[in-house]
Structures are given as C-alpha cells and as structure tokens.
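Most newcomers find our protein records easier to grasp once they have seen one. Nothing more is needed to start thinking about how sequence determines fold. Here is such a record, shown just as it appears in the course material:
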Amino acid sequence: MITRLVKLEFSESFVENFKWLFTQVNTKISSFEGCVGVDLLQHETDKNVFFTISKWQNADALENYRQSDLFKHTWAQVKPHFVKKAEAWSLLDTM
C-alpha cells in the first residue's frame, strides 16, 4: 500500500474554487483503479494550504493515475494558482 501526501499552497483568491473543484473530482479519483481512498485537509490557521492524502494499492496504480487524463486535466486547472511549488511524498505502509 502506498500513501501519497501532497501539500498545496494556493493564492487566497483560488481557495474556494479549489474546494469546489475537489468536490467535483474526488469521486472520480476515489474510483480510479487502484485507489483505496482520497481525503482533503486544510491547514488549521493558514487557510491557503491544503494537503491531499490518497491511498493506492501499489506504486503502479499511483503512477497510472498520475499519467491519466483525469490527473493532467485537474493539475492543469490548479497549477497556475500555486504560490509555492507543490510538495509530494509517496510513503510505504509498514504495518
């Protein structure tokens, strides 16, 4: 199992649009082959910072998603609104 943690920091003017966009794609990501689930969290005090946490059956499933039209289309919509480069970690479940 792979857990993918991604930190995203947006311009303040895009925050509500991002939340709406995530509600539109969340089900599609969750039902992508190999995805076990995906969550969105917002920083407690810095409302422009979000984290996505997704679980994948394996690294190949995650990579297939990252190469998909769904990911590319979604990323193209959010990337112009970053105030800092996104940070991402792929973590192995050890238990």
Q: What stands out?
A: The chain has one domain: 2-87. Residues 2-87 form a domain with the Alpha-Beta Plaits fold (CATH 3.30.70.100).
